[in-house]
Amino acid sequence: MNVRVRPLKPSDLAAVSRIERRITGSRRTSSLVRNLRKYLATGDPGSCLAAEVEGRVVGFVVGEIRPWEFGEDREVGWIRVVGVDPDYQGKGVGRALGERLLRYFRTKGVRRTRTVVEWDAGDVIAYFRTLGFERGDGITLEMDLR
Ligand SMILES: CC(C)(COP(=O)(O)OP(=O)(O)OC[C@H]1O[C@@H](n2cnc3c(N)ncnc32)[C@H](O)[C@@H]1OP(=O)(O)O)[C@@H](O)C(=O)NCCC(=O)NCCS
Asked: Do the beta carbons of residue 115 and residue 131 sit within 8 Å?
């Protein structure tokens, strides 16, 4: 299967929304999709990629280079979200997206990359491990403010 990875464009947002809803099983448009248009204009568009198969967007990744972070003396490349259409999973699309993003981070001088995944998302963790990620020392803390 020929996978073409290219920059994500505002016109891809409907496809991103479709893929995300298929993965999550939700009918709601998420804050990711609502905010992505602005992020593409003001954030780090080089970190946002789409994967096409036969002209159809079947996957995406949204990253970010954070210029400073506690305990770090240089930028950290974060992978904020990655998603592949369930019909196209397991065919190398996620690997193509991930490797391209890591290459981008390296060209920008980034020496460390991070992501946060659910502890029980074994498939996503397996995917990140194949890219070279290992469990870090940090833990995430969160709190419901309602
Ligand atoms: C995780 C995900 C991005 C992987 O993309 P993909 O296109 O299916 O993955 P690929 O086919 O490119 O596989 C890449 C590697 O990951 C591994 N992998 C992918 N899915 C896996 C799974 N379900 N179980 C175990 N390993 C898996 C493969 O073994 C492969 O390794 P290899 O290249 O050495 O053979 C995709 O399955 C997905 O979108 N899942 C839902 C994502 C999600 O919940 N996102 C929200 C959190 S960010």
From this structure: no
